[in-house]
């Protein structure tokens, strides 16, 4: 009975929230915090508010319309070629997302167990088996994901306590808005890591499956979205704040995730380093479960028919392993893979955000003010991507 009461606290937003504390967030915020201090902390807060709004709209779309964003868009595209064209950014989202999540598991195992990264990547494939076990019974996946988010949060509570950044500096930087060309790449990376397009896609799938037509669930949906994504926002901020306190204030520029882990040991002791490694591993496992589920559902929507779970998830994982292993083999640093994968997500984000805002507006699901807020959110995403492209920092 206690387990049943606990499961009532979890819902679609629980699963979605873990996407906002994935390894991509680690890479983006650690790179940002070590390079620019807290100059981009405001991006975390603004992106988190945009994420709450768009996740709410996506989930409501699933509840009221009873279909996912992907299915609704594909059903409205007349020609076969238009559907193929729209499928390309969706597949790019799936690949870029899962690449980061999979790398997070491999990095966590590599750092904590001191095994070679390529061997750790081979072991990380087993997360598909964990997902199959977790999805056998309703509620088990939510419980597992919720537990992982708690582990990540507690790990960063420990790190912040040990590092002890200055609270007044954090408060001041939270409201200091500014951006130059040098910072555009990491700002876009933070946006892509915070407003996760695959999480927007998945939310509508989950609410359509579980709460289809149940308008009374909208209030619970709003509450869950705000609570879980607020927790994720605080963890994201903690990532950047910890990197600022541990590295930037000491003039240390972090070049890779292993360097961040190893640097923490002489500065703050093994507890801080282990907390970092455990958080990264938990982030990789939990967010990987979510990204593989999203990949399965998107592929089913594109194909127009359901597929065997184990087969689809294994295919999605194997496809996404290839570009990662190639990147690591040619000497690209893990932190660069994480940062650039999130930049790809930022660039692909309008292909998800724009349809969500248009659909809820045309179907009369939101108020005039909510529609305007959605348009402003989309405009922010597009403008930040334009600044990135115009800055010429894409290849630096």
Give, in order, the helices and strands.
HHHHHHHHHHHHHHHHHHH
Give the helix proportion (percent range). over 70%
Which secondary-structure class do the elements indicate? mainly alpha
- In CATH, the homologous superfamily goes by the name Amino acid/polyamine transporter I
**Shape verdict:** globular
Largest sheet: none
Please tell me the CATH architecture by its name. Up-down Bundle
How much beta, percentage-wise? under 5%
Task: Name some characteristics of this structure.
396 residues, Amino acid/polyamine transporter I, 80% helix, 0% strand, disordered N terminus
Can you walk me through this structure?
By secondary structure, this protein is an all-alpha fold. The chain has a single domain, classed as Amino acid/polyamine transporter I, CATH 1.20.1740.10. The protein has 19 helices and no strands. It is globular.
């Amino acid at each position: 009975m206690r387990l049943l009461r606990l499961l009532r606290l979890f819902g679609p937003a629980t699963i979605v929230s873990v996407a906002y504390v994935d390894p991509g967030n680690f890479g983006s915020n650690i790179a940002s915090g070590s390079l620019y201090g807290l100059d981009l902390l405001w991006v975390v807060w603004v992106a988190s508010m945009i994420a709450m709004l768009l996740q709410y709209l996506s989930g409501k779309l699933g509840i009221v319309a009873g279909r996912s964003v992907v299915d609704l868009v594909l059903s409205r595209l007349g020609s076969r070629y238009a559907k193929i064209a729209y499928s390309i950014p969706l597949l790019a989202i799936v690949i870029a997302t899962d690449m980061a999540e999979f790398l997070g598991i491999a990095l966590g195992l590599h750092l904590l167990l001191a095994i070679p990264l390529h061997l750790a990547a081979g072991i990380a494939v087993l997360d598909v088996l964990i997902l199959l076990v977790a999805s056998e019974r309703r509620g088990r996946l939510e419980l597992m994901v919720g537990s992982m988010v708690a582990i990540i949060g507690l790990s960063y509570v420990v790190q912040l306590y040990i590092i002890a950044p200055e609270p007044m500096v954090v408060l001041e930087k939270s409201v200091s808005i500014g951006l130059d060309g040098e910072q555009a790449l990491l700002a876009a990376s933070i946006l892509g890591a915070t407003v996760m397009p695959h999480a927007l896609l998945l939310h509508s799938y989950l609410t359509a499956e579980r709460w289809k037509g149940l308008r009374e669930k909208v209030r619970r949906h709003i509450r869950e979205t705000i609570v879980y994504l607020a927790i994720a926002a605080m963890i994201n901020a903690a990532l950047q704040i910890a990197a600022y306190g541990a590295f930037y204030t000491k003039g240390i520029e972090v070049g890779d995730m292993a360097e961040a882990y190893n640097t923490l040991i002489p500065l703050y002791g093994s507890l801080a380093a282990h907390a970092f490694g455990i958080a990264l591993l938990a982030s990789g496992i939990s967010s990987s479960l979510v990204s593989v589920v999203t990949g399965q559902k998107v592929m089913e929507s594109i194909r127009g028919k359901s597929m065997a779970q184990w087969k689809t998830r294994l295919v999605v994982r194997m496809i996404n392993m290839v570009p990662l292993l190639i990147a690591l083999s040619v000497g690209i640093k893990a932190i660069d893979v994480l940062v650039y994968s999130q930049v790809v997500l930022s660039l692909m984000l309008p292909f998800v955000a724009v349809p969500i805002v248009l659909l809820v507006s045309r179907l009369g699901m939101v108020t005039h003010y909510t529609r305007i807020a959605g348009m402003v959110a989309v405009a922010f995403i597009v403008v930040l991507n334009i600044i990135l492209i115009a800055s010429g920092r894409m290849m630096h």
